[in-house]
Design brief:
Blueprint (H helix, E strand, L loop, with lengths): L1 H32 L7 H12 L1 H12 L4 H15 L2 E3 L5 E3 L5 H18 L7 H38 L4 H15 L6 H7 L4 H22 L5 H9 L6 H6 L5 H17 L16 H9 L6 H29 L14
Antiparallel strand pairs: 1-2
Helix pairs in contact: 1-2, 1-3, 3-4, 3-5, 4-5, 4-6, 5-6, 7-9, 7-12, 9-10, 9-12, 9-14, 12-14, 13-14
Length: 345
């Protein structure tokens, strides 16, 4: 069971990072350039479309993690798309892709499909290419589709809980929300989807974003010795979700980042760091968080606001994470570099 869960989370993590990185890296930059270079709009649209392919990529990468055959892997990708809720039909009969779907349900559907294809095994023989994709849609795919409303409701309950925290006073509220999002970014729950569903804005959004910043920078620093530089940077430029498997196996790896998140969240409340429902779930990916703060800050791009932005989004999280990782690794001996080792084989 542990091995199954391990492989499932590995596949989900890779699928999420691969599909979200293009828009995370280019999205905000392209938005700034499109008014001057309109032809870049097509590139931006493509990165948004790739995000909607997240369910397929999760399914395929889960199949690869379990070393399934090509037909089985493709079947997991198809079924995951069916159960994700990303496909919607309009009143005019047109099919549309709605965001990235419900990530938790995508993962559940992928897991059910893996179990299904393993159960079927070689029983279909030469008819596998004809029957397996169809059966994967009809059985695990439709099972995922049927439980989709219930998973959506569960996600909504989480959102209501986060929204309730925003009714507290700013500093405490900021610290709590930041810690919550620092944890959620390491789970299958979509931080972007959650923030959008509950319309998390203002200081709540800024604090949520800084929680993800704390996780991304901290995990990049902590994992540097165990992984290549590019992989370490993926925690910041892509998504901290890349560590999801390790987090579920060893939650202690997040201790330094949680403390950093609490401090940054409190600063969000104290310094009035704001954001939008969209920016809340991105952290430093594509500089979405810092740029949105600058757009919303009183006075815009003033020297004071630039100083606050650089300090809170970059300098403070680096210093705090470095100090806390040192304490937890060298002094308390709670964590070690190998705890952050990523396996993409």
């Amino acid at each position: 069971m542990k091995e199954f869960f391990n492989k499932l989370l590995t596949g989900i993590s890779i699928g999420i990072v691969v599909s979200l990185i293009p828009n995370a890296l280019l999205g905000e930059i392209l938005k700034l350039l499109i008014p001057y270079i309109p032809s870049l709009q097509h590139i931006y649209d493509i990165t948004v479309f790739v995000m909607s392919l997240l369910p397929v990529l999760i399914g395929v990468m889960v199949g690869v993690s379990f070393k399934l055959t090509s037909i089985q892997t493709a079947s997991v990708g198809i079924a995951a798309m069916v159960g994700s809720g990303v496909i919607q039909k309009t009143a005019d009969g047109l099919f549309t892709l709605n965001g990235i779907g419900v990530v938790i349900n995508t993962g559940l559907t992928a897991a059910l499909t893996v179990l299904f294809v393993q159960l079927v095994g070689d029983r279909l023989k030469a008819y596998s290419i004809l029957l397996l994709p169809t059966l994967s849609i009809l059985v695990p795919g439709m099972a995922g589709y049927l439980i989709l409303p219930y998973i959506k409701n569960t996600t909504g309950i989480i959102g209501v809980g986060v929204q309730h925290v925003t009714t507290l006073q700013p500093v405490l509220m900021g610290a709590i929300i930041s810690v919550i999002f620092c944890i959620i970014i390491l789970s299958p729950v979509s931080t972007v989807g959650l923030a959008t569903v509950i319309s998390l804005s203002g200081i709540g959004s800024g604090a949520a974003n800084l929680g993800i910043v704390a996780a991304g920078i901290g995990l990049a620093i902590a994992s540097y010795k165990a992984n290549a530089l590019g992989t370490a940077l993926a925690h910041v430029l892509g998504s901290p979700k890349i560590q999801m498997r390790n987090f579920f196996m060893k939650p202690k790896i997040l201790f330094p980042m949680l403390i950093t998140a609490a401090v940054l969240g409190a600063l969000a409340g104290f310094l009035n760091i704001q954001g939008t429902p969209y920016s809340a779930g991105f952290g430093l990916s594509g500089l979405v968080g810092p740029l949105n703060y600058m757009h919303l800050a009183d006075g815009g791009w003033t020297y004071k606001n630039i100083t606050i932005m650089i300090s809170v989004f970059f300098i403070v999280p680096v210093i705090l994470n470095l100090a806390l990782i040192y304490i937890f690794a060298r002094k308390l001996k709670v964590i070690k570099a190998d705890d952050y080792k990523l396996h993409f084989d």
